[in-house]
Specification:
With 157 residues, the chain is α+β, with helices and mostly antiparallel strands. The protein has helices at residues 26-39, 110-122, and strands at 7-11, 14-23, 52-56, 67-75, 86-90, 93-101, 127-128, 134-137, 148-156. The relative contact order is 0.24.
Length: 157
């Protein structure tokens, strides 16, 4: 295994548009709904201004085929809910962040890289803050073989 590259990032509070799907493969369906909504509003022209984050909600359970996945995109403060889109306020905070490829990462699959990041935090001066662990899509349009994620583990300390 290669040495894990971890950086500390403070996310500011932000308003996000959110869509959540529960199914056997909710990521693609939730992302499709979010992208359709965001495209029509010109929010995907720059992922630095309007980053896209996702996370399990609820997490997969042993013996259950269905689980949930929720995607967020940062929006302006005056954004309003519409259809499947819910608008939420996110408090931000400090995160330990590493980057991985969705497929073919030398550190392992995404779940293994999450475990490496959690182990890194356990050995660091930080404590895991049990709130939203986020996966930021570098390019929401990337094919699965090319997708790159920044994994955000919330910490304090």
């Amino acid at each position: 295994m290669n040495k894990l590259d971890v950086r500390m990032v403070r996310l500011d509070d932000m308003r996000v548009a959110s869509v959540r799907v529960v199914s056997e493969s909710p990521e693609a369906e939730a992302l499709g709904k979010l992208l359709a909504w965001a495209e029509s509003r010109g929010l995907l022209a720059g992922t630095e201004r309007n980053p896209v984050y996702g996370f399990n909600n609820p997490n997969p359970s042993p013996g259950e085929k269905e689980y949930g996945y929720e995607f967020w995109i940062k929006v302006d403060r005056d954004a309003e809910p519409e259809g499947d889109i819910v608008v939420k306020d996110f408090a931000g905070g400090l995160y330990a962040v590493t980057t991985c490829r969705l497929t073919g990462d030398p550190q392992g699959n995404v779940m293994e890289v999450w475990q490496h990041l959690l182990n890194w935090v356990r050995e660091s001066p930080y404590d895991w803050r049990r709130t939203h662990e986020l996966e930021r899509l570098r390019d929401p349009y990337a094919a699965e073989l090319d997708a790159v994620l920044d994994l955000y583990l919330p910490v304090e300390g």
